[in-house]
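hey
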């Protein structure tokens, strides 16, 4: 018996140890959700990498104004090297004074000889320095264009962060709406089920007809359908919030509620903030400046505009390894060096008027960018008008639904008192409970709509509402 109990205990411990550890529920505020998403979002990380890449491109563009030095070295082996310069036998002579005897002449070499050559190794080294002096603004404008690319990447990063905050806001309050809706719908389902039971009993007793029973069943089915919808919407919202924040959806406990009511919105102030912080407008303005710089670059590449550059070249070549030479003045020493300093001019003499066509295209890009800025300003104004409209309607809707919910709650309290006093039936009480729950659901939907409208305003102005 004891052995059996021991084996059973060990088996239970093994099962508990092998079971997966579920994460403990932890509260999550809206601000914490924002922070976690910004830290772990892959989309934001991609935009940050794009900013870093554009900064490296700016460094590359700036390096074109600095001197460039190219080094080239080679070592060769000659299996059959040239024999050098031939000195025939007795082709050289030297007169030797020998007084008091007559002068003598000494001839050499005694046989054919070769001077130099017979070197199997050959080395060459070249260092070339090039420095642009004047390029008609092509380099400086290219650097400025790269700097504008950095600004464009930064604008994209800002826009992505706002979009991520918008998604977090929607997922958080979507989960909160589903959570509150499930609570209310569960209560309504229980009340509707009791109504069905009461009408079924009345039908069995012969005091009502089947239509009343079927109406109650239809109401119950509608509430259950809405409850399933709220459950699925909540699961989807929590899954989205978990993906955004990196938290396990089952461990998320929402700790922030709906925001409080605020004073009336100042549309002119919101419009001013939106015009100053709109990422779409900033991107179009940046595109306009880039178009100007590109036009300047194309003008610098016109025909008959010479680019001037300085070139310095140092070359060293030879056949004998100096490290093993007996003397640098050896007759076999073939090393030599040369230094060349040049001032070069390069220009486009004729390109079939392609440069003028490119200038025309750049001009059209500039015109399009200017039109785009005007259009973007109009769209920002329209977006602000729509957002303020939606926010004002949402505020009014919340007030309306709050008043309706308060009225329904008061009617429910009165119905409970009347039921306790026996002046109304239980079905009347359930009807009042359902009306109160429906009003509360409408209030929750209105609160969510107000959060959505405020999130749109925050996306436009970079300010929390």
């Amino acid at each position: 018996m004891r052995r059996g109990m021991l084996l059973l205990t060990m088996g239970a411990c093994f099962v508990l140890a092998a079971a997966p550890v579920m994460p403990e529920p932890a509260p999550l505020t809206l601000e914490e959700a924002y922070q976690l998403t910004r830290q772990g979002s892959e989309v934001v990380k991609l935009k940050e990498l794009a900013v870093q890449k554009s900064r490296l491109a700016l460094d590359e563009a700036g390096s074109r104004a600095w001197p460039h030095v190219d080094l080239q070295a080679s070592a060769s082996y000659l299996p059959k090297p040239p024999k050098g310069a031939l000195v025939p036998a007795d082709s050289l002579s030297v007169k030797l004074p020998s007084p008091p005897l007559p002068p003598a002449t000494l001839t050499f070499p005694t046989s054919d000889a070769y001077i130099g050559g017979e070197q199997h190794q050959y080395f060459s080294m070249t260092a070339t320095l090039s420095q642009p002096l004047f390029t008609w603004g092509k380099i400086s404008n290219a650097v400025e264009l790269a700097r504008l690319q950095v600004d464009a990447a930064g604008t994209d990063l800002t826009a992505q962060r706002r979009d991520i905050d918008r998604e977090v806001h929607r997922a958080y309050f979507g989960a909160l709406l589903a959570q509150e809706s499930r609570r209310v719908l569960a209560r309504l389902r229980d009340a509707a089920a009791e109504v069905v039971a009461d009408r079924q009993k009345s039908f069995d007793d012969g005091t009502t007809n089947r239509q009343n029973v079927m109406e109650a069943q239809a109401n119950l089915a509608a509430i259950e359908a809405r409850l399933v919808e709220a459950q699925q919407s909540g699961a989807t919202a929590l899954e989205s919030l978990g993906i955004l924040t990196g938290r396990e959806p089952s461990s998320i406990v929402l700790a922030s509620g709906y925001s409080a009511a605020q004073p009336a919105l100042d549309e002119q102030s919101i419009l001013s903030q939106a015009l100053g912080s709109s990422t779409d407008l900033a991107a179009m303005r940046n595109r306009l400046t880039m178009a100007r710089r590109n036009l300047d670059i194309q003008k610098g590449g016109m025909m008959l505009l010479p680019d001037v550059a300085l070139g310095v070249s140092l070359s060293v070549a030879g056949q004998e390894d100096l490290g093993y030479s007996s003397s640098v003045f050896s007759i076999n020493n073939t090393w030599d060096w040369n230094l060349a300093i040049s001032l070069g001019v390069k220009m486009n003499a004729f390109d079939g008027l392609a440069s003028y066509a490119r200038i025309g295209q750049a001009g059209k890009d500039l015109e399009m960018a200017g039109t785009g800025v005007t259009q973007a300003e109009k769209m920002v104004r329209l977006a602000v008008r729509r957002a303020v409209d939606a926010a004002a309607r949402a505020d009014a809707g919340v007030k309306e639904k709050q008043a309706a919910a308060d009225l329904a709650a008061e009617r429910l309290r009165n119905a409970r008192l009347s039921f306790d006093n026996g002046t109304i039936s239980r079905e009347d009480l359930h009807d009042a409970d359902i009306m109160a729950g429906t009003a509360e659901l409408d209030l929750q939907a209105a609160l969510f709509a107000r959060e959505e409208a405020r999130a749109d305003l925050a996306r436009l102005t970079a300010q929390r509402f």
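Strands lie at 26-28, 68-77, 85-87, 92-96, 104-108, 113-115, 121-134, 252-254, 307-318, 336-346. Confidence is low (pLDDT under 50) at residues 4-19, 323-332.
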